[in-house]
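Narrative progress, year one. The postdoctoral researcher (J.K.) led the effort to move from monomer predictions toward full complexes, under supervision of the PI. The following entry was the first complex the group processed end to end, covering 236 residues in total.
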Amino acid sequence: MEWTPPYDPQQYNLLPLLASQNRTADWFTTDDGDPYGRPNIARYSAHQASKVIPFRYQTAVAERPEVRDWVTGLATAAFAEQERRNAPVASVTRGPSLLLLGPTGVGKTYEAYGAVRELAVTGAFARWTVVTAADLYAALRPRHGVDSEAEFKRYVNAGALLIDDLGASKVSEFTEDVNFRLINRRYEDQLPTLITSNVLPKELSARVGDRVGSRLNEMCTRVVITGTDRRRSVAA
Ligand SMILES: Nc1ncnc2c1ncn2[C@@H]1O[C@H](COP(=O)(O)OP(=O)(O)O)[C@@H](O)[C@H]1O
Ligand SMILES: [Mg+2]
């Protein structure tokens, strides 16, 4: 793990995330030179997270208690496993997934990136891959000169995977196949996956297929976000 010199947690709006995890700014900026220490993992992870998070969501803070509980659960499991194996670093490897459902604009993507950011400051290390479902299908579409199986592995084997807007694209045999192969593998290996979708809960299975819907039901904590489209209430 790379030594990441202490920086001001306000730089990434990390103070509310640290508070939610009962950590202080002093803990975050612990300057003990230990690259495996949790404060360093937190600094390194928060910095890494900022590289995969779109600009709009760089300061996101999850508000839903179920989302924050999911983060805490993953970190707690990683710390327990670290202790059990006497490992230098607590890594997020296996655990439950999270499904955020709700109409367009209620804040699903915001909550999702808030979760990515909060997990970072726990001091448990997660290797995130983030993608929208639409970009995922585009990346995997068979085409000349691209090894789409290698590309597929990138998502299947991601330590933690965020799939944004599942079920929003037009359904085809190809998208169904990608959904099933990806979700099934993540389901079987119990790899933490964070999924957002604007499909109504009762329509999810119809949208993504029964086999995917059934697996999502078992592997995910489901959070339904209600409210109005925040994009509409922004002053023009
Ligand atoms: N809790 C929040 N606090 C501040 N801004 C928010 C919050 N939730 C969402 N937003 C903002 O509202 C807009 C819509 O949120 P977004 O997460 O993109 O919606 P969805 O993914 O559900 O379509 C974005 O500009 C986002 O930054
Ligand atoms: Mg979104």
